[in-house]
């Protein structure tokens, strides 16, 4: 289980992905498009076009975890779609996973440039 904890780094991809991608496809996106290390322990969050599904990718020290969450009703709150990624705090991440509004939770997300260019 991915537990929201203080100091947890969460990177939210603002662009929707092809939800057929598996572990290897998402690792390639993280490494090539984000220029990040998919094995660093950060949580990488991706969404479907319909905003009702999330995929989480995280290295737990012994292997990669790929988790998927569907909402039965409604969609996940998401920043405007543009190139880049948004960093979330542990509190914002917990709110996002519950399908609640996280964008007003302090601290505000910090945009990182050039996500899927």
Automatic annotation (TrEMBL):
Keywords: Plasmid. InterPro entries: Transposase_IS66_Orf2. NCBIfam families: IS66_TnpB (NF033819). PANTHER family: BLR8292 PROTEIN, PTHR36455. This is IS66 family insertion sequence element accessory protein TnpB. It comes from Skermanella cutis.
């Amino acid at each position: 289980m991915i537990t929201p904890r203080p100091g947890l780094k969460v990177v939210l991809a603002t662009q929707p992905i092809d939800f057929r991608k598996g572990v290897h496809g998402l690792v390639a996106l993280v490494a090539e498009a984000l220029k990040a290390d998919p094995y660093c322990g950060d949580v990488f969050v991706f969404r479907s076009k319909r905003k009702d599904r999330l995929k989480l990718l995280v290295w737990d020290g012994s292997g990669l975890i790929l988790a998927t969450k569907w909402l039965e009703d409604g969609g996940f709150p998401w920043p405007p779609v543009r190139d880049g990624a948004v960093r979330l705090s542990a509190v914002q991440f917990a709110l996002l996973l519950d399908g609640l509004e996280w964008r007003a939770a302090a601290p505000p997300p910090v945009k990182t440039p050039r996500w899927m260019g």
